[in-house]
Specification:
Elements: H1 3-10, H2 27-31, E1 35-41, E2 47-52, E3 63-68, E4 77-78, E5 87-91, E6 97-101, E7 116-120, E8 127-130, E9 137-141, E10 147-153, H3 162-172, E11 185-186, E12 189-190, E13 195-201, E14 207-209, E15 224-226, E16 232-240, E17 246-254, E18 260-264, E19 270-277, E20 283-290, E21 300-309, E22 322-329, E23 336-344, E24 347-354, E25 357-364, E26 370-375, E27 378-384, H4 391-394, E28 402-408, E29 411-418, E30 424-426, E31 438-447, E32 450-459, E33 468-474, H5 491-496, E34 500-505, H6 513-518, H7 525-539, E35 545-555, H8 557-566, E36 574-578, H9 584-590, H10 594-601, H11 608-614, E37 627-632, H12 641-653, E38 664-668, H13 678-697
Length: about 700
């Protein structure tokens, strides 16, 4: 801990708390607000949260730890301060905060620019617990303080020789990767240049590799947990199968012997992930995910398995291995699960999307039955009160409470306490947003017997005398929902500028059960547009909205929708496509998700009618609407080749004077599937609003909005 850390850790209140934000004309100001990333409940009623905040130039968003008042009375106070930042707070059994950071260790025990595990006691300075050449990611903490962590080692190497091998590779400037199969990419990074290993970390920092020789695929995307007694690790384990595909089993690792046994084996129907031991170690919650097909999407099921030690032939239990003696499946209704945590030995807390909002459910682990604890918002970073907390620790009504982050369309993630009766109380914290520049309303309409709804944002200035122009936004996924705050796709920037924004949840949206997820499968743009357009037409009956001035915007699947819509209608005056799919025969083979794309859609020769109808590139000659394309060079989910080909097709097809071509391309050379750098997000927002202003409202050239 730096001297600044020591000062803030003992200060009675933090004086740097930010004022409530209300000026949505200040794009940069909003994107500089502190952002809550995660929180953790600690013994004694303490709550610690990680906040991200843009640096001076808006180039990075390092995070810091803050302590929040669980009673909701005192201001938050900052606990840490370093250039590298601190993240992922977790409670230690002794009341200390465990976190990860790449900050340098004053005693020289850290590795440059690689995160290690740190411990911050209730009073005193933070100290480095453990470090590894490939960095450490803290995954779980057992009752005695033993930790489960993940690290990276160079292929074929060991934890012991990794530092030396890394130095040799760096000095030789070797950047090659030897691939032996799929996958080879994920989101924005390569697969194959490192192996992810699981490590056991003792309370004093000794490291033991639990998965030596795991290879480059097995644990790349693994989710894992450590049993409360630190004897067993449950983890997903990925293996390659024929056809360029993979399957993820659920395996158990014996910490003492290193023996690996398969608890649940994946097949061509389902695979497994997200294991979580109950506080007493007798149950294991996990997700069973079906594999998508041309007729059915993938469905997640929350299973709760009862564990027991298998008997040997001689009848004793010792060394017999752990097995599942049965399981129940949680009854979650329409909720699409996003987060789960054990509250006690027989109760799970589950958060997820529900009906264009969200909810927290309590699940009885013995029966699978579920009941709503809290709703009316999207909840994440669930953190039940630690085991052993008593009323005297945190004070009366705080005993047994859970903490979480809560968000909605008009509210960024805020820390809340969820009481046993479901009462939700916001805790004081930096980064609050105040009055919005318009109204937020849930709207819906009947589309062929199905209620399709979404959120409508209308500027306060809109009236029958001066109706507002309208933007239609279509979300990505397609399994997603417009139900929570977005720092970049923030409708309030547009509302402040005078636009109304409609954000539908059409076919394949989350939070509407299996039928909602599968309606319109496999990724039918005609079904989605029919539902979105029907809702748009319904709200355009309002006199305060101007249906003669409209724009359409979308990203990822929404960008695919934008590209497809551009070739099938001229009703919009401008279209914005971010990270959109353009030529599906190309995209389905070059995406990092090629295996699932090809499994669902097949080769274009196998289903030519589907590809001809739904690959947007076939209709380039029909596009008359000005289009703004935006794309990140490091996007491996929708490779930038989609934007490059779309841009060539648009520019080469323009038969007028080059200076009169209306289309534009905002290339984000350092970004991935999203736009994560605040300074780039500022440019993106300004470009989008300027482009729509030019082509819908007759404003000045959007070229003038771009600064270098």
């Amino acid at each position: 801990m730096s001297t600044d850390d020591a000062a803030t850790a003992t200060a009675p209140a933090d004086l740097a708390s930010t004022p409530t934000f209300t000026d949505f004309s200040d794009v940069e100001g909003l994107l500089r607000l502190p952002r809550l990333a995660s929180l953790a409940s600690l013994p004694g009623g303490r709550v610690v949260a990680a906040f991200q905040e843009a640096d001076e130039h808006g180039a990075r968003t390092p995070s810091a730890l803050w302590e929040l008042d669980p009673a909701g009375e005192s201001s938050a106070r900052r606990l840490t301060r370093s250039e590298k930042g601190e993240s992922g707070p977790r409670p230690g059994p002794d009341g200390a905060v465990l976190f990860t950071s790449a900050r340098p260790d004053p005693d020289g025990g850290s590795f440059e620019d690689k995160p290690g595990i740190w411990r911050l006691p209730a009073s005193g300075e933070a100290e480095l617990v453990a470090a590894a050449p490939g960095g450490l990611e803290l995954l779980a903490v057992a009752d005695d303080g033993t930790m489960l962590a993940a690290t990276q080692v160079l292929p074929g190497g060991t934890l012991e020789d990794d530092a030396e091998r890394r130095t040799a590779r760096k000095d030789a400037r070797r950047t090659t990767i030897w691939h032996t199969g799929m996958p080879i990419r994920q989101w924005d990074h390569e697969i194959g240049d490192q192996e992810r290993h699981l490590l056991l970390v003792s309370p004093t920092g000794e490291l033991a590799d639990l998965t030596p020789g795991a290879g480059t695929v097995a644990l790349t995307s693994a989710s894992a947990d450590l049993s409360p007694d630190a004897r067993t690790v449950a983890t997903s384990w990925t293996r390659r199968v024929a056809g360029g595909e993979t399957r993820s089993d659920l395996v158990l690792l014996d910490v003492a012997t290193g023996e690996r046994t398969v608890l649940l084996e994946a097949d061509d129907e389902a695979q497994f992930s997200t294991p979580a031991f109950s506080p007493d170690g007798t149950r294991l919650a996990l997700l069973r995910s079906t594999l998508s097909t041309p007729t059915d999407t993938s469905y997640d099921r929350l299973e709760i398995h009862t564990l027991a030690v298998a008997r040997r032939d001689g009848g004793d239990h010792a060394g017999g291995g752990i097995v599942s003696t049965g399981h129940v499946t949680a009854e979650l209704g329409d909720l699409t699960l996003t987060d789960l945590e054990w509250s006690d030995a027989t109760t799970l807390l589950v958060a997820g999307d529900l009906h264009s909002s969200g909810a927290v459910l309590t699940v009885d682990a013995t029966t699978g039955s579920a009941h709503t604890l809290a709703d009316g918002g999207v909840f994440s970073s669930l953190s039940p009160a630690p085991r052993g907390s008593r009323a005297g620790d945190g004070g009366g009504e705080l005993a047994g409470a859970a903490h979480a982050l809560r968000s909605d369309i008009g509210t960024p993630p805020r820390p809340v306490r969820i009481a046993a009766d479901g009462t939700v109380t916001e805790l004081p914290a930096p980064g609050a947003v105040g009055a919005l520049p318009g109204t937020l309303e849930w709207v819906s309409t009947d589309v062929d017997g199905i209620e399709v709804g979404g959120w409508l944002c209308v500027p306060a200035s809109a009236s029958a005398a001066e109706p507002a122009p309208v933007m239609l936004w279509i979300h990505g996924g397609p399994h997603g929902s417009y139900n929570a705050w977005s720092w970049r796709w923030c409708p309030w920037f547009a509302v402040e500028a005078g636009w109304a924004v409609l954000m539908p949840d059409p076919a394949m949206s989350t939070g509407y059960g299996d039928e909602g997820l599968n309606r319109g499968w496999p990724r039918r743009p005609d079904v989605v547009f029919h539902e979105c357009e029907s809702l748009l037409d319904a709200v355009l009956d309002r006199t305060e909205l101007d249906g003669t001035r409209t724009a359409m915007l979308g990203a990822s699947f929404g960008g695919f929708m934008a590209n497809w819509i551009a070739g099938h209608t001229d009703r919009f005056d401008a279209i914005v496509s971010h990270a959109g799919l353009w030529a599906l025969p190309q995209q389905h083979r070059t995406t990092d998700a090629a295996a699932s794309k090809m499994r669902v859609h097949g080769h274009e020769d196998e289903d030519p009618d589907w590809y001809r109808a739904f690959s947007p590139h076939h209709e380039v000659d029909a596009i008359t609407t000005p289009m703004l394309i935006t794309h990140g060079n490091r996007d491996y989910r929708v490779p930038v080749s989609e934007a490059l080909r779309l841009w060539w097709d648009l520019v080469s097809a323009w038969d007028g004077a080059p200076e009169d071509m209306p289309h534009r391309f905002l290339q984000l050379t350092s970004e991935n599937h999203w736009v994560l750098t605040p300074s780039n997000a500022v440019v993106w927002n300004r470009a989008v609003l300027a482009f729509c202003d030019e082509h819908v409202l007759g404003g000045p050239s959007a070229d003038e909005a771009i600064t270098w």
